[in-house]
Recover the amino acids of this structure.
């Protein structure tokens, strides 16, 4: 499609008739001199002698063409190729895009503006990606208008808010558009160097207060309550007055009026009944971004783990497990059993995690220092002296498992992570080890390794990034897609037009020189 | 200088031997016959040619009173003047059109016209006439006063040698000579007569009682030919007028030229003008003989 950068220059084409007229007045060149022109009057044409203008010099066509080419070059004639336009849209699906302004979420507004911009851009191959998940994409090339908006809205509704993950490198062969509210710092930093073609930014409100963290852990005293803690932050620019209410399951266990200055955060502590399975904090009234006004944490992990203990394992191990504040021993089987502690003979198959202590007849001292192999948290910090340990070298090794603890010449413990099973070859009932203060910790460590979670002092925690709750737009430089598209897809024809004009000019000069030579020759013959 | 404008070369090609041959039939040109009317002067200063008394007649108002014959007037009681037979010789003016159209085409028109002027001058002078020459276009450009004898021919030939047609512009207006030419002089008019009315209006103005006019229409064979194939326009060398031409223009121009010549011929016949025509590059001798034939047949 042809386009003109400065169409006003096209008015210059109106001069072409003047060029034609001037060439009628000019030297005809091809006229033949005769003694009496009246002899050649054409009665059919009824030309009045003395008034008949000669025909225009045919060179006027050449010169008019040359002039037209220059006018078109001045008008900035170009060729726009819309059909090959490819657009990749990167849609910010972060939490702040769910802020509600004027009854609509920013995401809905952004979807509408995106659909309108795509309609304005014309035919193009359009692919929409989520910034939070680059593999999620939607093709809307074949759609337009309301149907495209509906498809985009439906697709966005399928995805929950998620923090943006910036693509390392954008494809350069397409136009990259960004749809965002510009409130996320990472997006804001990324877009400055990403080479975006066009940005669609939405949102204007700035005030938001969010519950950014809720935590709970066991309390030693009283044993019937957990400790709870909440963090509330004001991310806006004005004081925030809100009421914080904490629910344990359905019961309100804490409520307080808050007044937080801009940029400040408040920590609040409270108690939670140990029977509660869920704690939920809520700020009322809800503000622009209601999704971050609530936060809840599952308290299940704070309850004791049910352990099936084999009494054959010995009294010391049993005492250590019973004294553990995060464990509750039972004999027998059941669905609630999380950990099975067995000793002697062959280990029984269990669906729960297990610790099998291989107690044989012979005890052998461990030679050389022992060290932990698995990079479990806290393992490297626990020192075990080999002099405390005795092992049964005749114990059968399990067919699979990785070394958990070893001395230079033997393995002291193995772990099968797939089966959540720990095989212990140490004698956990020998006097040197049970007398050590580290013994309960060693038992706890084996339990936590088998259960793959902390049981001694677990913390139920839910956090929300402060960046997610910021809804105020950061300094974003908008990029206009039309300017970019013009640069990228518009072929400027002016250089070619000027080149052709130069060729026509050369042809004109050449023809004029030839005619001048012919006239001089004729003049010489006359002279 | 190319050949077509080299009038001196054209004059040089007119040999005296050929002129002498042509002079033997000069009397056929009706240039040596006695005049019909009576002269006013008793004689010419020409040796060997006396005057002959014709008659007395009554004085008419305006006539020179020096011509009165006092004796007869006293006897008859009324003023009488003497009249004589006119002289055998007469005064002739060669009128040569030097407008741009005479120099157009390949220039052979002008060369032929110059040769004819020289030939006419020689023949007229040979017959004892006084001969002068006027070259005209839209005005009188050159004038050679009346004279006679060999010296006059040399003078006219020199003037013709140095003359050339107007390059561009100008017009063919023989009537501009009417004030220059003396009453009673005869004319030899050499022109192409290429005007829409074939110069009939001008010829009427030149006519006067007792004046002989010989006219030779000098044309070119290429007069109506367009030199370049594909010519789209032609320009009149005199008026500068340009007109577009279409295919077949040469044929139409030749037809119109014939029509103009026919009209001119009819006009000359009606008005006692001896007209002949020629087309360069005819030989001047042939042209002279054709003109003599025209005069003789008339």
């Amino acid at each position: 499609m042809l386009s003109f950068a400065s169409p006003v220059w096209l008015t210059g084409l109106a001069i072409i008739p003047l060029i034609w007229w001037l060439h009628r007045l000019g030297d005809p060149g091809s006229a033949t001199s005769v003694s009496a022109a009246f002899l050649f009057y054409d009665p059919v044409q009824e030309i009045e002698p003395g008034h008949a203008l000669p025909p225009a010099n045919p060179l006027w066509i050449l010169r008019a063409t040359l002039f037209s080419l220059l006018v078109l070059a001045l008008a900035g004639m170009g060729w726009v190729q819309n059909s090959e336009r490819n657009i990749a849209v990167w849609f910010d699906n972060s939490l702040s895009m769910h802020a509600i302004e004027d009854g609509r979420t920013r995401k809905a507004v952004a979807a509408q503006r995106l659909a309108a911009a795509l309609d304005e851009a014309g035919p193009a191959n359009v692919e929409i990606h989520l910034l939070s998940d680059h593999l999620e994409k939607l093709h809307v090339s074949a759609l337009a208008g309301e149907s495209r908006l509906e498809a985009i809205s439906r697709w966005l509704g399928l995805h929950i808010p998620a923090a943006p993950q910036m693509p390392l490198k954008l494809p350069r062969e397409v136009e990259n558009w960004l749809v965002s509210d510009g409130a996320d710092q990472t997006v804001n930093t990324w877009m400055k160097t990403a080479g975006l073609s066009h940005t669609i930014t939405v949102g204007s409100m700035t005030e938001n207060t969010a519950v950014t963290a809720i935590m709970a852990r066991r309390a030693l005293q009283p044993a019937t309550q957990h400790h709870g803690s909440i963090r509330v932050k004001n991310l806006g620019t004005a004081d925030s007055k809100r009421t914080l209410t904490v629910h344990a399951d359905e019961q309100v266990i804490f409520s307080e009026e808050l007044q937080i200055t801009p940029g400040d955060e408040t920590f609040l502590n409270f108690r939670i009944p140990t029977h509660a399975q869920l704690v939920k904090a809520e700020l009322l009234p809800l503000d622009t971004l209601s999704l971050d006004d609530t936060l809840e944490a599952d308290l299940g992990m704070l309850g004791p783990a049910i352990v099936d203990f084999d009494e054959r394992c010995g009294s010391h191990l049993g005492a250590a497990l019973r004294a553990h504040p995060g464990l509750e021993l039972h004999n027998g089987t059941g669905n609630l059993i999380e950990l099975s502690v067995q000793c002697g003979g062959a280990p029984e198959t269990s669906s729960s995690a297990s610790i099998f202590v291989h107690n044989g007849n012979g005890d052998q001292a461990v030679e050389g220092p022992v060290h932990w192999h698995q990079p479990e948290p806290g393992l490297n910090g626990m020192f075990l002296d080999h002099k405390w340990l005795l092992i049964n070298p005749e114990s059968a090794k399990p067919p699979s498992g990785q070394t958990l603890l070893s001395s230079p010449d033997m393995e002291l413990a193995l772990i099968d992570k797939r089966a959540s099973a720990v095989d212990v070859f140490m004698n956990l009932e020998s006097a040197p080890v049970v007398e050590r203060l580290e013994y309960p910790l060693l038992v706890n460590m084996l339990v936590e390794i088998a259960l793959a979670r902390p049981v001694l002092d677990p913390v139920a925690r839910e956090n929300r990034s402060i960046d997610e709750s910021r809804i105020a737009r950061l300094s974003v430089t908008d990029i206009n897609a039309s300017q970019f598209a013009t640069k990228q897809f518009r072929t400027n024809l002016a250089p070619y037009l000027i080149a052709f004009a130069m060729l026509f000019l050369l042809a004109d000069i050449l023809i004029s020189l030839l005619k001048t030579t012919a006239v001089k020759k004729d003049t010489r013959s006359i002279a | 200088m190319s050949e077509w404008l080299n009038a001196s070369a054209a004059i040089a090609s007119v040999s005296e031997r050929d002129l002498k041959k042509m002079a033997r039939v000069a009397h056929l040109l009706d240039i040596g016959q006695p005049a019909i009317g009576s002269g006013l002067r008793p004689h010419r200063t020409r040796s060997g040619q006396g005057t002959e008394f014709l008659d007395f007649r009554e004085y008419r108002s305006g006539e020179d009173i020096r011509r009165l014959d006092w004796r007869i007037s006293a006897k008859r009681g009324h003023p009488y003047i003497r009249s004589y037979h006119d002289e055998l010789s007469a005064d002739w003016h060669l009128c040569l059109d030097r407008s741009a159209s005479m120099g157009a085409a390949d220039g052979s028109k002008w060369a032929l016209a110059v040769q004819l002027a020289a030939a006419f001058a020689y023949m007229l002078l040979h017959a004892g006439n006084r001969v002068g020459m006027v070259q005209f276009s839209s005005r009188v450009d050159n004038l050679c006063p009346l004279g006679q004898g060999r010296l006059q021919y040399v003078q006219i030939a020199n003037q013709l040698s140095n003359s050339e047609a107007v390059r561009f512009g100008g017009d063919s207006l023989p009537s501009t000579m009417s004030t220059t030419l003396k009453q009673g002089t005869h004319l030899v008019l050499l022109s192409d007569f290429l005007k829409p009315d074939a110069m009939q209006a001008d010829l009427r103005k030149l006519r006067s009682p007792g004046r002989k006019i010989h006219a030779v229409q000098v044309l070119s064979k290429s007069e109506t030919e367009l030199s370049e194939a594909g010519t789209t326009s032609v320009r009149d060398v005199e008026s500068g007028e340009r007109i577009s031409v279409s295919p077949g223009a040469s044929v139409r121009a030749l037809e119109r030229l014939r029509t103009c010549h026919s009209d001119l011929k009819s006009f000359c016949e009606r008005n006692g003008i001896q007209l002949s025509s020629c087309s360069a590059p005819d030989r001047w001798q042939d042209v002279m003989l054709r003109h003599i034939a025209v005069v003789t047949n008339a």
Notes: The first helix of chain A runs from residue 16 to 25. The two ends of chain A are 59 Å apart (CA to CA).
